[in-house]
């Protein structure tokens, strides 16, 4: 067995012990010096700082009292007297602290004299108050001011004696600090010199065999597993070399197996990706394209050389890039899925963007993005079918208009007995038919309006209007209905000057629809609140109610055409109101969304553009 001093561990232990002894000596010496220095500093802070602080605060308090007297002289006697008494309490608080902190010779006498001066100061104030108004100014100038300055001077004397004592203590601390720094520096320098000399000696003895291994280890680091390291010593370095050579054999074996697995997995992945019928793009954390399939090549004219290049370098589509990275909110369909419009070979195609981000699981506040997979599902055919459906509904609605009008007129004539008398049963039957015609007519009108909006044919009469006045004129038609149901319907926090550029008739329709829905789903004791606030160039209008609320599963579909919640107790209405409202807000370059908690509350929010400054005038909304 080798002796300890001949092994590397023995050499290292010897060096460590020497360094530890040096560090202990320096540490003990430093602790002793800094303990003395800390004691000196504490003396400075604890013995005198409180008295100086109390003096400063007493000066400020008595100066405030003097200012309070000036308030009394100016005729504000109540305010001045209140302020004087408040600062009197403040002065006495700090005086008590100074009185409890007498630490130096002569300070007790000053405190006693200060107490006498301040007591006289308060007595003079009482005399001042008993004088007539015209006598107060003379009393203040000739008597009171002198008492004020005498008291203030005594406070300064208290502060001065403590400051002098602090300076004296500081000088003593400085002397001790200088002596401690010098002695600590000398001891530290001596320790450093000894440690450096010892380090050079031990390093030379330890690193000699290590340097022989360095070049071989670098080759292994470069994945050159074929060249083993020579064993030139029998110490720990020799043992390490033997174990390292065994590790090289294992690494070589593992590398061979790993490469085969990676090649197989790569071929599988490429086969799967290339058999996906929709364009597929994979980007890394730096937004470089690391994988795409044949469909992506055809759609974006990509080449194999485009791999590992930045997305925007090979695909010049800012909208798609922003959707993938999440920089902006993309245009979405009724189901809430992002939709992208691309033009290829003079024809428009529509793609649903399905994006999945994969993150590295690391122990930090936020996981780091590893890569992002984006699938573009072609929904052009679905768009065309949807357009055909809309065209069909529009055509049918137009065709329904004329016969519905004729039927309604005929029923009205029969109910009015223009064509002969009818009995009560016949009248009830005709009235029910007339109500059904009215509902069908309303549905047809809604369908026609929606068709115009979806086709981009909506006409807006944009004017600058006062939002609060517009809202007031809109909701006053619901006042009787709200009162009948004991519902509190009101406008909250809308500025009189808040002006928006909108089509007042259509925005009034949106507010009416939202308030009408709120009334339908609220009961006795509930409230409906309309509020608005400006943020930047947009105004956000909120319609909030404390009614039944909406299930979370219904929120994403609430703006779909003809959609009704399963829990919807009311079967009236066309189911198009919110869809039309969304189209109107979208036509104003705004957004509308809903938040709700089932059984508690619902809040619809939509945005409108603020009126531009260059509008020549504001359209007045007249009371109806």
UniProtKB/TrEMBL annotation:
Catalytic reactions of this protein: ATP + protein L-histidine = ADP + protein N-phospho-L-histidine
UniProt-listed InterPro entries: BphY/WalK/GraS-like, HAMP_dom, HATPase_C_sf, HATPase_dom, His_kinase_dom, HisK_dim/P_dom, HisK_dim/P_sf, Sig_transdc_His_kin-like_C
Enzyme Commission number, as recorded: 2.7.13.3
EC category name: transferase
Gene Ontology terms: biological process: osmosensory signaling via phosphorelay pathway
UniProt KW keywords: ATP-binding, Kinase, Membrane, Nucleotide-binding, Phosphoprotein, Transferase, Transmembrane, Transmembrane helix, Two-component regulatory system
Matches recorded under Gene3D superfamilies: 1.10.287.130, 6.10.340.10, Histidine kinase-like ATPase, C-terminal domain, PAS domain
Coiled-coil regions listed in the entry: none
Domain of life: Bacteria
GO CC terms: membrane
Cellular localization per UniProt: Membrane
Chain segments annotated as transmembrane: 12-31, 180-202
Sequence ranges assigned to domain Histidine kinase in this UniProt record: 395-612
SMART domains listed in its UniProt record: HAMP, HATPase_c, HisKA
One function term, GO molecular function aspect: phosphorelay response regulator activity
Start and end residues of each HAMP domain: 204-256
Protein name (record): histidine kinase
Source species: Halonatronomonas betaini
């Amino acid at each position: 067995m080798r002796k300890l001093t001949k092994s590397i561990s023995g050499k290292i232990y010897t060096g460590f012990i020497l360094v530890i002894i040096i560090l202990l000596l320096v540490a003990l010496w430093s602790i002793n010096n800094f303990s003395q220095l800390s004691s000196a500093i504490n003396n400075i802070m604890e013995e005198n700082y409180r008295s100086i602080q109390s003096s400063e605060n007493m000066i400020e308090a008595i100066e405030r009292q003097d200012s309070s007297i000036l308030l009394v002289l100016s005729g504000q006697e109540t305010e001045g007297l209140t302020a004087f008494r408040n600062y009197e309490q403040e002065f006495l608080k700090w005086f008590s602290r100074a009185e409890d902190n007498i630490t130096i010779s002569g300070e007790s006498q000053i405190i006693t004299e200060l107490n006498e001066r301040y007591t006289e100061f308060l007595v003079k104030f009482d005399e001042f108050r008993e004088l007539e108004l015209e006598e107060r100014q003379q009393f203040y100038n000739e008597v009171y001011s002198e008492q004020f300055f005498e008291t203030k001077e005594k406070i300064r004397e208290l502060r001065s004696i403590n400051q002098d004592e602090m300076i004296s203590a500081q000088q003593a601390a400085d002397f001790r600090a200088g002596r401690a720094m010098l002695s600590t520096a000398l001891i530290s320098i001596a320790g450093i010199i000894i440690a450096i000399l010892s380090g050079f000696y031990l390093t030379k003895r330890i690193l000699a065999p290590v340097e022989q291994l360095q070049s071989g280890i670098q080759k292994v680091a470069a994945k050159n597993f074929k060249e083993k390291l020579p064993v030139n010593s029998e110490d720990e370095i020799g043992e390490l070399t033997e174990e390292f050579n065994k590790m090289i054999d294992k690494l070589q074996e593992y590398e061979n197996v790993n490469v085969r697995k990676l090649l197989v997995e790569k071929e599988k992945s490429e086969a799967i990706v290339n058999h996906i019928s929709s364009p597929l793009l994979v980007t890394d954390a730096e937004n470089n394209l690391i994988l795409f399939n044949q469909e992506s090549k055809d759609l974006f004219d990509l080449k194999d050389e485009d791999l590992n290049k930045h997305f925007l370098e090979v695909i010049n589509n800012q909208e798609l890039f922003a959707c993938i990275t999440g920089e902006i909110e993309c245009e979405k369909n009724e189901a809430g899925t992002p939709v992208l419009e691309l033009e290829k070979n003079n024809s428009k195609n529509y793609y649903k963007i399905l994006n999945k981000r994969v993150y590295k699981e690391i122990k930090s506040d936020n996981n780091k993005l590893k890569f992002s997979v984006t699938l573009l599902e072609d929904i052009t055919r679905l768009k065309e079918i949807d357009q055909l459906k809309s065209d069909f509904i529009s055509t049918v609605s137009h065709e329904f208009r004329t016969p519905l009008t004729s039927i309604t007129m005929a029923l009205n004539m029969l109910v009015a007995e223009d064509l002969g008398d009818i009995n009560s049963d016949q009248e009830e039957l005709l009235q029910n038919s007339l109500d059904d015609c009215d509902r069908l007519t309303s549905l047809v009108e809604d369908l026609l309006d929606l068709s115009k909006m979806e086709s981009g044919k909506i006409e807006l009469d944009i004017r600058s209007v006062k939002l609060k006045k517009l809202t007031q004129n809109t909701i006053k038609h619901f006042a009787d209905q709200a009162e009948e149901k004991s519902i509190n319907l009101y406008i909250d926090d809308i500025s009189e000057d808040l002006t928006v550029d909108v089509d007042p008739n259509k925005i009034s329709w949106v507010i009416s629809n939202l308030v009408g829905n709120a009334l339908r789903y609220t009961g006795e004791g509930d409230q409906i609140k309309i509020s608005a606030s400006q943020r930047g160039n947009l105004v956000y209008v909120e319609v909030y109610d404390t009614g039944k609320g909406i299930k979370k599963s219904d929120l994403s579909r609430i703006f779909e055409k003809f959609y009704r919640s399963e829990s919807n107790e009311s079967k009236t209405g066309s189911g198009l109101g919110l869809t039309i409202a969304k189209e109107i807000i979208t036509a104003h370059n705004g957004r509308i969304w809903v938040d709700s908690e089932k059984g508690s509350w619902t809040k619809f929010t939509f945005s409108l553009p603020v009126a531009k400054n260059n509008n020549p005038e504001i359209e007045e909304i007249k009371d109806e």
